[in-house]
Amino acid sequence: MRLCKLPRRHLLATLLIVLSMLPVAHASDWNYRVRPGDNVWDLSSRYLKPDVPWQQLRDYNKIADPYHLPPGMLVHVPIAWLRQQPAEATVVAIVGAAHVQLSDQAPAQPVTTGMSLGYGAELHTEPGASLTLQFADSSRVLMQEDSTLRLDHMSAYGKTGMVDTRLRLQHGHISSAVTPLTGSAARFSVETPGTVSSVRGTHFRVAADGAQSRTEVLTGRVDVGGDHAHVLVPKASGIAVTDGDKPTHAKPLLAAPELQCPPQAVTQLPYRFVWTALEGASHYRVQMASSDRFEALLLDRVTQTAGASLPDVPDGSYAVRVHGIDGDQLEGLDSTCTLRIDGHPQPPLVMEPLPGSKVRDTRPRFRWTESLQASSYVWQLAGDTQFAAPLASESELHGDHVRAPNDLPYGRYYWRIATRDSSGKQGPFSDPMPFDLVPQPPVPEVGKPQASRHTLNFAWAAGATGQGYHIQFDRNPDFSHPQIDRTLDQPGLEIPKPGSGVWYLRMQIIDPDGYASPWGAVQKIRLPCMVCRIAAVGGGGALLWLLL
User: Fold this and answer.
1) Which of 371, 384, 383, 381 is nearest to 426 (CA)?
2) What is the per-residue pLDDT for 269?
């Protein structure tokens, strides 16, 4: 069969007639694709406002047979005809203290997990606090510490899945993960004193502090408007706008830093978490949470150095993320790692012997502080840092001390201690603590005193470099009330000439590390009576000093 060739003008007229029979779609329409079994009445009752009759939907879409809608057909619905109801946000996680005013006249009340919030609510997080809100379309917003956020508008368009969410960040920092929006009425925006950031599904941050607003885009794109100007900020870019100024241009964000994630479980707390320094970074923000969703922050800290100490948290798995901050205060791309903490119960603090100290007792004593959470302690002594073959060990110690079970030869030793809690769980050992077992230093004997008219001088052999000398001089051999009690750094002592009679003297060595040796042998000194001596020899003669 041959097709007739229509004149061009007839073909154009035919095309216009066909197009006129198709439904007219507008940018403000919501579009629904027909499924098997759908009809105009069901669609009207499901999606339209009660005062919009089904005939309007039929006529708007030029539906010839309302009983039979072909599957796959697009039905266009003006946004103004759709059902609309208020939506709510839910607090899914919180750390620290935050409060909310549900309306302008309502008193502030504490924010709790699971709380539902409607539009008009205003939230404030205290220092050290953070919380996550989930909205009707599953989008989430993390509020960081010292932030104020108002839920300006939250509505849902019936069962269409379209949600209109508008937030106002008055002060502080938020991070938003927005579910990709479908439908022309779907909207998610964050307003600050200087900008409005609008998205249709992305991950971005907004900050408002001082007189500046900042937007940082991690995925997708964000339209940033202010003072009748708009800038489309792409992925991995950010923009800083002074309040009252127009947004001008976006700039690339700092790259994600390289983190040094611990390959093994962290056992020693606090733990120093470090990363590679970034060129162009003036500061860094490090955050820690109980999962990589970062719903509530256990740590949110800005530091100038490429490292930060993690907080003492219960054993478990955690996520840590870090990004750099440039000179415009724009915060860069995140690096994240997960780690496991297995550091509880922590070992006690040690008291003696301290690491690097010298011990003279061949059966040394070991002492530590006691934890209120400890039920017992595990103690080990070894000749090497690996403790492959401990020289002594105790697995169920109570109290705060233990003594070596036998005499040890002189040399270097290592000891460590661990805590066991009431459930029987043993925590990590302390670091190996070295000490040296050394002989007692010899106490020099005091030589024969030398007398002058008004003083008495003692001298003895000098000890090792840095050693001091503690000397006591008393009438009683128990030195209960010493007349002289001095610590010297030179091997000599000059005292005012004492009275006659028997005196006792003793000395101990003080090492540079503060160790005091046992007292040396007690020495007795007899000082004769000058008057008696003069009388015996007729008023003359020398005084006799005897050192016994």
Assistant:
1) 371
2) 83
